[in-house]
Structure formats: C-alpha cells, structure tokens
Amino acid sequence: MAKLKVKRRPSTDGSTGIILKFQLHSNKKVKKPEPLNLEVVPRGKPIGGSTTGWLITINNSSEIITLFNTANGAEIQLPPLPLFLNEDVNIVHKAVLSSPPDSLLDDDYVVMIIYGNSKQLACFKEGDETWILLEEAGNSYDDILSHEGALYGVDEYGQVVRCQVDPYSWPPILDVVTDRWFFWGQKLNLAVIEGYVCIVIRFMEDGGLGRQTCHFKVGALTDDRDKGVIICGLSNWAILLGRSHSVALPPNTVQGLKGNCIYFKDDDGSDVGGFRCFNMEDSMIHYPLQSETEELLRIWKRKIVN
Question: Residues in domain KIB1-4 beta-propeller (predicted)?
C-alpha cells in the first residue's frame, strides 16, 4: 500500500517549500513485464504504446489508426479520422487506450488522441462508427495518460482534465483537476508514481542545434483543484520519456536503470539519437552507462516507450 508523506523544507529565498515523498508499505515484489514478440512488426507510425502489449499506430497515407497486439499480431482498425472544425489536416500527436481491447473486465475500451494543429482532444469508443471532438477541453495539449479507468490530459499551461470512462455515459463528461497555472517550464508530461498521477515539467534552453533539456521537476496532482500540484521527488522510481509514450518504473523493476532518474531524448540532434539521463538528486544531466543504454534500447524495441 502506498503512503503519502509530506514534509516542509525552507527554500533559498526564505519561503517554505513542500516536499512530497512516496513510501511503499508492501511485501509484494513487482513483477517484470512479459517480453513482447519482436518478430511481429506493426505497420504504420507508433503514436502510443502500452505496458499491456497493445501498440497504437497510424498510417499517414490513409489516416487510419490501428490497435496492434505486439504479442500475437492481432489488429483492430479504427474508423477514419474526420476533419473537425477549424482543422484542415489530420495530425495525431499521441494516443492512449483506456483498457486493453482483449480485457475481460471491460466491455468497451476508449481511445483518446491529441489531434490537429491546435492539439485538441478527441475520443473513440468501441462499437461507435466515428470519433468525437472534446471541444470543452480546450486545446494546446502536451500529453495524455490512462490510469485506473480514467483518461487524463495536460495542456501546455498546466491545466489537467480527467475523462472518466463509462460505457453508459457517452459522450464522456470532463472535469478539470487543476486549472491553468502558467508553469515555469517548456513542456509537460504525465506519469503515474505509486498510484498518483504526476506532472513531469521539462525546462529547456537554446543550444547549438536547437532547444535542449536542462532541468526537470516533478509535481503530484492533489484532490484540491485550488492547490494544483505539489512538487515532489521520484522515491527511487525511474521515468522514461518517449515521444509517443512514456512510463514510470518502480524501484528495482528493470536491471541497469537507476532510480530517481529521468531518461529522455532531445529533438535537437545533440544526443545523436541516443538517450540522456537527468538525476533528480544532484540535478545533473549525463549520458547513460553502457548497461543503461542496452536496457533502454531493449525497452524501446519492445515498443513500451516510443
């Protein structure tokens, strides 16, 4: 069982900061995910991965989204994307699944995407014939996440919305978890640590070939909309940030990776297609060791993170 522990620590400017730590009280060992079948190659560009073994891809020529089971090669083709209002091109930045299509616990799965030049949210429910645009959610979304029967989205200003998946209530009802707070970073991602939905805040600066990552902060969502997020640590977890899917891994789950670290790629070409690692303890960025790189490549090849 996860326990939330809050401490207060004076900051350098004299104010009091809140440090949130997660403590795991359980004798259960975390099982490693089952290896996926690398002989099965999906068609299309990956726009979403899943630790449950389902990969979401899109065919850029036909604009068809396909759910692909990397374990057995099963495919589910979704309806074509419509041209929504104010969008003149179908661009899908990221996609997530509410539950595995072959799950015995859910009758209907939902796919949520970040869609179009304005980065709005759109959804498809199993059994429907078309997609719906979630206009009330606004636009400019950086990331989306599926967690415990709900779909979350965070926009570039820090607003987090939640869509509770209910097959008997459609279109879905959205509620705002945190208001826009004009965060001080340049990009936001969502991750789940010890059952808590967290925001990973990336800070960037101009480099030789473009913008480079220079720092990270992590904040946990609270139940109080007015409080927003609480800046916290990783409690020895590791976060892997991909372009179409990211994942947080518990301590000692994956050999070779270090806890309290965020592994990421930049798009400026400075890492020459490789990985870099931000250590939350000393706030330093370094290139991973060979053992770390080998494990990261193995995870990327399994399509858990892309």
Answer: 41-275
